[in-house]
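Encode chain A's predicted structure.
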Amino acid sequence: MIPSDRRSGPARGALASVLLLLAASTPLVPLAAPAQAIDTRAAAEVFDQAQALCTEDAGVLWARMLCGPLLLVEPGTGAAVGNRPDLSGVLAAKHGTAVFAGRLPDDLPRGERILEWDNVRWAQLAWPLPADPLDRRQLLGRELWQRLRNELRLPDQAAPASHLDDDPAARRLLQREWRALARALAHRDRPERLHRAVQQAWSARQARHARIGLLAAEAERGQELIEGLGEYTGLLLSGREDPHAWLVRALRRPPGTQPLATAFAHRSGPAWALLLDHAGVVWRVHVRPDADLAAQAHQAITAP
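Encoded structure for chain A:
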């Protein structure tokens, strides 16, 4: 015999409400643990690519080897994989791969930047990396170079060129400079057209600086030394068949609404640096913290 429920109507209703609440709050399928953010075998492939890039360069470009501590970090979770262990033991060796994985401490910055961690200077890249192999090589070359800035005695930071976002006229003059730089690179083997285009790029630059002031000029110069020379290095080591043509296309693309305070240097810096190379100037081994790539290239190409 099934015992009858002797509870009153209100009691049975309360019990039913509790059971419904429990059912709604209990998952039908157990929650899975968070997945590993960075596949260690994929990370090992990246480290192999970085080593191959360094071997190909052999220290020729900057008279220094580019390779060193390299860290891949998933910004959202802090999951990190390095090509060597850290001094604190956060990154543990993974069986079967030459990588060391862990979670970056919360007080450390995450993303594409140089990371000073336990007195070691790491090149840090945000995961995932570009899928395109040439884009990936360019990114690796760029960020590996950033780790060398202190050896080259270049500044670690510069003021953002915020006027390029705040002043529409300055932004238009920057695009005029870019279009002239694109013409200069495209016609670099035609001296008259090269000379004219470089002069036009320089004039647009001078007009922009006259409008905004010396602080603007200094911010642009500093960003071109930091972000610009990093992109220049990555571009030359990317394995692209024609780096000049790639940069010409980039210079001709309008920025749209993209913030330019630092991003502008990824186009301007490599352009002026490549023009310096074309002019036959030996400049990389003598680059200084006060170097002005645009002024040097303009002088080398347009001087009588």
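Strands lie at 70-73, 79-82, 92-93, 100-103, 113-117, 120-126.
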